[in-house]
Amino acid sequence: MTDYFIGHVAYYFIILLLIIGLWGMLFKRNLLKKLIGMNILQSSIILFYVVSASKYNATVPVLNPKLKVIEPSQYINPLPHTLMLTAIVVSVATTGVALALLIVIYKRFNTLDENELLEKMK
Amino acid sequence: MIFEHFPILIPISLLLGAMVSAPVGIWKRKLTYPIALLASSVALFFSAIGLVYVLNTGTHHYYLGNWIPPIGIEYVVDSLSAFVVLIVNGIGFFVMIYSHKSLEREMPGKEVPFHTVALLFLAGLSGMVVTGDLFNLYVFLEISSLSAYALVSVGQKRAPVAAFRYLMLGTIGASFYLLGIGFLYLDTGSLNMLDNAKIIPLLSEKGLVLVSLTLIIVGIGLKMAMFPLHLWLPDAYTYAPSVGSAYLAPIATKVSAYVMIRILFAVFNPEFVSKYYNFTDVIAWLSAVGILWGSIMAIAQNDYKRMLAYSSISQIGYIGLGIGLANPLGFIGAVLHILNHALMKATLFLVNGNIFYRFGTTSIPMFDEKLRKKLPYTTAAFTIAALSMIGIPPTAGFFSKWYLVLASVDKNNWIFVIVIGLSSLLNLIYFFRIIEKLYITKKSDITTNEDVRMNEVPISMLVPTLWFSILVIVLGIFNAYIVDYILKLAIPSGMI
Question: pTM of the full predicted structure?
Answer without folding.
Answer: 0.94
